[in-house]
């Protein structure tokens, strides 16, 4: 399910609609719009040049032609299915048999659905914990690999390796590692004499949750690290040098210089992590089947169950629409947070 | 292709970014061996040595002793650094390495704990053989996966190249709305639109077909890719186009002949992302395909995970993870400079 | 670009179509994990008939949703080997071909496995017919019994006896355990192996009309206690707590003293693990009596398929002595009672126990089997894990009872 969980992670990079690249490689500071940093765009501003304008109006429809294939795909395989989902959400729509219009009953049911609420709670809990865990690992890693020194490229590559394998594959791999009899972690702990007998890591909520968190950190930390690294390296060396000469300690420099300058990067990494976590599904489906005792049912898992296990497609559709709204609100919040809603030329 | 475009003066590679892009080992090692590397190392040592040094200097005026001390300290620091580095590398490598090694154990060992993880009774391909006995055989599924992934790459690149160009260079009605629409694709968990997707594919006669699956993958890939390509085109100065137009290049010709070489790094990034995501996806493949011989590898893996005859064959799981992982690793290691740069370019902006 | 692709794929489809010969090819789906019997009978049929069957294996956990999705998209296979418990739900939804008239004229109709026909019937019409039968039975490892000083030929008759035996076997070694069950919220495994404990003693988890959940009975409490006690005494491998069915047949590793398993497994054990010497008997009830779960697959035909006659021809072949023999050889019990003895002739005598179990076996009839029982996140699956492994048994009973009733009520 790489597409579901990883892609949104990667894709969210795109979502944040950045201004065009600055040739210096430094991120534009707050308030610097796209126009200021890119003189060549001004040249083509409409109204600046009569002949340009004429040609533009003649060719503007050609732009539509270029985006037509992409739009066709998006319309056929995204817009129509989503509209269809919205339509389904207003029905009692069993997978088999006849559907019945029930208006907003599915949405009313949702408000009173204790299992949906607990799925929301669990998803929020997971999102918070995993995000903290990822940052707690990725930030030190970014600092660790920031400076150009011997083998640093190798370290970066190794840390990044798990990012490129699929989340489903990673889950499968870890479900084996965590297996009590035929796995690796439990037997290794036993061989090292740390435990008396190999523990079944996936049997209790706490140890299963911890295993999943470690798996996700293993899988994702490299990704977050690279993003943070970008921010770290964009901080002008002169600034840190100046601070150092002024007698600022390491922690002070980090707290008052590094962190504020990395605000945008951190926000971006944060948002990627949050979005990916809210959509989490594979790891719970493959590693614990939502257990133990249904305590790891995320929102997407619940939607999946309602749609494809209980076959309440209508209700599943309503839940999807709800999740869509939640994600949209978060996206708007992130656009605000990043202050990157500027119009493009 | 890579070298030319990377050194292209029109497509400046900022010096700081250059240090970001993972160098291949040889290059990195060479650099840090130079004096400059040493200097950099000392200068940037994070422990505020300048200050410490000043204090020490006051305490003891013995220059030579101080230098020796400092060298020892650098050495110790280096030791600590690489010790930590090794531990980190171990954590990130071990799961993959353990699985790969364990997949070569004898079939009879698959049930035993992986201590030690390497084959103790000699090297064996039993696990791969039992993996092969699932579904229509691992080759068939690998071929399917490769076909879908490569087709996804080609289509994604073609479609996003055109769209990125259109969004970057033209103004047209509803441009922003359409752009947001493309980006919005990633806001809905696609599990929830699987049923409509299935019905639409059936209506198009593309159900249970790798073509249909590919089109779905391309769509899922578009937000990132279109965005990436638009940025890539934004970075190309318009003067180049103007000049080419004067020389008579038009439209697609202009795009392919003149602009494509300038956005190749972006194309490479888009292509790698498309490959990895298509290669690893399982739920859509499971729902949208319905015959053995068309299943992709991840679906095979689900069958392996489900076990057979009431027992899961961990050997087959390990072999499957290896088969799933190795192409990703190869693609990544071969093209990592683009991949990382694409990722970081996205983040910097 | 899309157009071109569409055109290409249309051409490709056309080529495939024109390549087919006049004989019919039946598309069938079969779930994975039910042994080789169906695959083998298809091979035998294809070798001797002009019509062909192509069987697609679908992971068992995804078969129902896949089939239902395919129906919604109008792309279902012609026929399906479907877990019999799902037949009522699919029949009720009007997705299956009515086979009543054809079935009743089969000369051997009355000797077809009664549980299957019952589950295949909805509102007095027949939509599903037995394809493979398996019953749950209790197995013990004779080798381990011997090592533990137990009489390897004496089948345990009560759960007290099973527990005592399990303790003795556990003493044999660190990795030898007395008992096994898939306790990681595997609703299907537990309905198959665990409910016979209460059925044998006269209780059930659903009322006869299927409209009331009757989970909380003294028998169920006692059954739960029996399992809890064995878990607490460390007689069950720790892996059981998270086994969601993928390792259902852990017995085959030779380190498990006793386990309830299915007739399919007998075939598997005999053919794949010949060094394990084991005995089988009926599953004892918790308060005496014996019971079993009649499982297996029903053969259903997608409504509106154009290959009805070919499908029927195939099914008749399966019901022939030849077909029954092939099925039996690869682990399925005969679906036809009248020729069962003959079909099992020359096969492992332990299969006879499975056959005997059919007489005492039950299968719950409900349209919501998936939601209630099979779903890994449904009330029954959750209950089995919570009650046996959790700290709050009363809470587990109360939650499951309430949730089951709520699901039943929402379906009315």
UniProtKB/TrEMBL annotation, chain A:
Residues 17-26 have a biased composition (Pro residues). This is Carbohydrate ABC transporter membrane protein 1 (CUT1 family). Pfam families: BPD_transp_1. It comes from the Bacteria. The keyword Ribonucleoprotein does not apply. Residues 10-54 are annotated as: Disordered. Residues 29-43 have a biased composition (Basic and acidic residues). The chain crosses the membrane at residues 63-87, 124-145, 157-177, 208-229, 265-286, 313-335. PANTHER family: ABC TRANSPORTER PERMEASE PROTEIN, DIACETYLCHITOBIOSE UPTAKE SYSTEM PERMEASE PROTEIN NGCF. Its main location: membrane. GO terms for biological process: transmembrane transport. It is found in: Cell membrane. GO terms for cellular component: plasma membrane. Keywords: Cell membrane, Membrane, Transmembrane, Transmembrane helix, Transport. Belongs to the binding-protein-dependent transport system permease family. Residues 120-336 form the ABC transmembrane type-1 domain. It is a multi-pass membrane protein.
TrEMBL record, chain B:
Keywords: Cell membrane, Membrane, Transmembrane, Transmembrane helix, Transport. The keyword Disulfide bond does not apply. PROSITE patterns: ABC_TM1. It comes from the Bacteria. Residues 48-57 have a biased composition (Basic and acidic residues). It is found in: Cell membrane. It is a multi-pass membrane protein. GO terms for cellular component: plasma membrane. CDD domains: TM_PBP2. One of its GO terms (biological process) is transmembrane transport. Residues 142-335 form the ABC transmembrane type-1 domain. The chain crosses the membrane at residues 79-104, 146-165, 177-202, 214-233, 254-279, 311-335. Belongs to the binding-protein-dependent transport system permease family. This is Carbohydrate ABC transporter membrane protein 2 (CUT1 family). It comes from Phyllobacterium leguminum. The lineage of its organism: Bacteria, Pseudomonadati, Pseudomonadota, Alphaproteobacteria, Hyphomicrobiales.
TrEMBL record, chain C:
Belongs to the bacterial solute-binding protein 1 family. The keyword NAD does not apply. PANTHER family: MALTOSE-BINDING PERIPLASMIC PROTEIN, MALTOSE_MALTODEXTRIN-BINDING PERIPLASMIC PROTEIN. GO terms for molecular function: maltose binding. It comes from Phyllobacterium leguminum. Residues 1-22 form the signal peptide. The keyword Signal applies. GO terms for biological process: maltodextrin transmembrane transport; maltose transport. Gene3D superfamilies: Periplasmic binding protein-like II. Keywords: Periplasm, Signal, Transport. The lineage of its organism: Bacteria, Pseudomonadati, Pseudomonadota, Alphaproteobacteria, Hyphomicrobiales. GO terms for cellular component: ATP-binding cassette (ABC) transporter complex, substrate-binding subunit-containing. This is Carbohydrate ABC transporter substrate-binding protein (CUT1 family). CDD domains: PBP2_TMBP_like. Transmembrane segments: none annotated.
